[in-house]
């Protein structure tokens, strides 16, 4: 019997990276997992002997499958009830210590990525997040390198203009999150308002299935009263708010009987919450399971 250790399957070896690409491309845990399943079927039926660079082959496959799925997903989102927000992803607390990783998968960044065209989104992610060269991206997308350079520059400027820098101090963010949870749990309107920036905006995604504001809410008073109003509803009885690492940053996990029913992520600026994103759609909570990992 041979003692030789079998070679690891490249798909299994790179699955974390592949999921990271698909999730950032699609903003959906469910769609990303579907793309990985399709990629596995493609990989499993491929002539392995003809594939010189398995990792490059898999990245190309996942990127292009994501582009195809994104085109159809955008059509569906045009008829979505209320604001469409990306699916939240419960990540390892360690991810929050890596500033670049946390920012690249934060809800704020995912929302900005939605404003890019599909190809721009792919080029930006492959270049700025995963570090691929323009030449490598040209090969993945089957486009001239000069075109990829132009797209990369345009996408980078687009993101930079729409994603200003906010506070990234982890300890400060955790402190503010805990104070916000305490204020909400206690129904303290003034305390909630003190933690919100005067020009705060809140978006909530209920998908037409649960209570959610169908338009963005503006202003500390309006946002605070809406949040406390939702928590005071009879159906909110037994809901618990707790800190959790969501999309690489400290956020709030809402649970009922130990089951996730929503997530809140936000920007922090000058010690206050500036932008809030509530994901409440029950169809978009499968990423709120422990043990997720991202590259």
UniProtKB/TrEMBL annotation:
Statement: the UniProt record of this protein carries the keyword S-adenosyl-L-methionine: no
UniProt KW Transferase keyword: no
InterPro entries: ECF_Sigma-70_Domain (IPR052704), NTF2-like_dom_sf (IPR032710), RNA_pol_sigma-70_dom (IPR014284), RNA_pol_sigma-70_ECF (IPR014303), RNA_pol_sigma70_r2 (IPR007627), RNA_pol_sigma70_r4_t2 (IPR013249), RNA_pol_sigma_r2 (IPR013325), RNA_pol_sigma_r3/r4-like (IPR013324)
Listed GO biological process terms: DNA-templated transcription initiation
GO molecular function, one term: sigma factor activity
Signal peptide: none
UniProt domain SnoaL-like: residue ranges: 178-254
Domain of life: Bacteria
Matches recorded under SUPFAM superfamilies: NTF2-like, Sigma2 domain of RNA polymerase sigma factors, Sigma3 and sigma4 domains of RNA polymerase sigma factors
Subunit structure: Interacts transiently with the RNA polymerase catalytic core formed by RpoA, RpoB, RpoC and RpoZ (2 alpha, 1 beta, 1 beta' and 1 omega subunit) to form the RNA polymerase holoenzyme that can initiate transcription.
Name of the protein in its database record: RNA polymerase sigma-70 factor (ECF subfamily)
């Amino acid at each position: 019997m041979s003692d030789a250790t079998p070679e690891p399957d490249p798909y299994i070896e790179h699955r974390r990276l592949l999921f990271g690409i698909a999730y950032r491309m699609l903003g959906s845990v469910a769609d990303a997992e579907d793309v990985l399943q399709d990629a596995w079927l493609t990989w499993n039926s491929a002539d392995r002997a003809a594939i010189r660079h398995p990792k490059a082959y898999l990245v190309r496959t996942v990127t292009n499958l994501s582009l195809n799925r994104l085109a159809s997903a955008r059509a569906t989102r045009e008829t979505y009830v209320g604001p469409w927000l990306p699916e939240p992803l419960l990540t390892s607390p360690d991810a929050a210590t890596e500033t670049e990783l946390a920012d690249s998968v934060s809800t704020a960044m995912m929302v900005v990525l939605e404003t890019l065209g599909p190809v721009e989104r792919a080029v930006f992610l492959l270049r700025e997040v995963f570090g691929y060269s323009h030449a490598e991206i040209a090969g993945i997308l089957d486009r001239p390198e000069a075109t990829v350079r132009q797209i990369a520059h345009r996408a980078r400027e687009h993101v930079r203009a729409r994603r200003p820098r906010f506070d990234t101090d982890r300890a400060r963010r955790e402190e503010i999150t805990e104070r916000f949870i305490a204020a909400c749990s206690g129904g303290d309107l003034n305390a909630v308002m003190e933690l919100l920036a005067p020009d705060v905006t809140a978006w909530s995604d209920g998908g037409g299935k649960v209570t959610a504001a169908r338009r963005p809410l503006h202003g500390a008073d309006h946002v605070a009263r809406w949040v406390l109003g939702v928590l005071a509803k009879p159906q909110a009885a037994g809901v618990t708010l707790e800190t959790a690492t969501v999309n690489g940053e400290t956020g709030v996990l809402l649970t009922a009987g130990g089951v996730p029913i929503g997530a809140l992520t936000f920007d922090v600026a000058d010690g206050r919450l500036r932008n809030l994103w509530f994901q409440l759609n029950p169809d978009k909570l499968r990423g709120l399971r422990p043990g997720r990992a991202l590259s």
